């Protein structure tokens, strides 16, 4: 388990790519569970358990669909398992770091430092997603950033349409 967490942390530090993850369904299920639990904790703070579960489910389906679609379009469907693992695992780590910030902000005390930290995490998430996409598609980092940006904006928009 420790080795898996360190692999995801190395992905977040741009030292490894999704191809460095083991081809393992157990790892995919573990990363989805970590994503779901940490995402639930973040969403539950503000929206209640039922809404949090629905949002996490939709978010997970969007992430799986995103990975599947980009890999099918690029004719690299064999990379789906590792790419999905990388996306879920790194999202879980970002959520882990964001959880205390979000919890603090819901108390009504939104400091400039908390806001800056949240923006920094959002940018880091974008960079990590771009890194994973560029490796998964064997494309340049800037191409990966562009695809990641489109995915993140589209998923934010869709989630806002569904849950606002």
UniProtKB/TrEMBL annotation:
Q: Which UniProt keywords apply?
A: Membrane, Transmembrane, Transmembrane helix
Name of protein: Yip1 domain-containing protein
Look up and give the organism this protein is from. Answer: Methylotuvimicrobium alcaliphilum (strain DSM 19304 / NCIMB 14124 / VKM B-2133 / 20Z)
Identify the domain of life. Bacteria
Membrane-crossing segments per the record: 21-43, 49-73, 85-104, 110-128, 140-159
Q: Does the keyword Transmembrane helix apply?
A: yes
């Amino acid at each position: 388990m420790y080795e898996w967490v360190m692999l995801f942390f190395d992905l977040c530090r741009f030292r490894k790519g999704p191809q460095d993850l083991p081809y393992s369904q157990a790892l995919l299920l573990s990363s989805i569970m970590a994503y779901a639990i940490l995402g639930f904790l973040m969403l539950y703070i503000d929206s209640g358990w039922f809404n949090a579960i629905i949002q996490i489910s939709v978010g997970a389906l969007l992430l799986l669909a995103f990975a599947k679609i980009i890999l099918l379009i690029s004719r690299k469907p064999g990379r789906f398992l590792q790419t999905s693992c990388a996306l879920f695992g790194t999202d879980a780590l970002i959520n882990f770091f964001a959880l205390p910030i979000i919890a603090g902000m819901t108390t009504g005390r939104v400091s400039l430092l908390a806001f800056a930290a949240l923006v920094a995490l959002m940018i880091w998430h974008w960079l990590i997603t771009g890194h994973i996409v560029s490796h998964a598609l064997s494309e340049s980092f800037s191409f990966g950033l562009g695809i990641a940006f489109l995915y993140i904006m589209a998923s934010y928009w869709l989630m806002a349409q569904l849950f606002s």
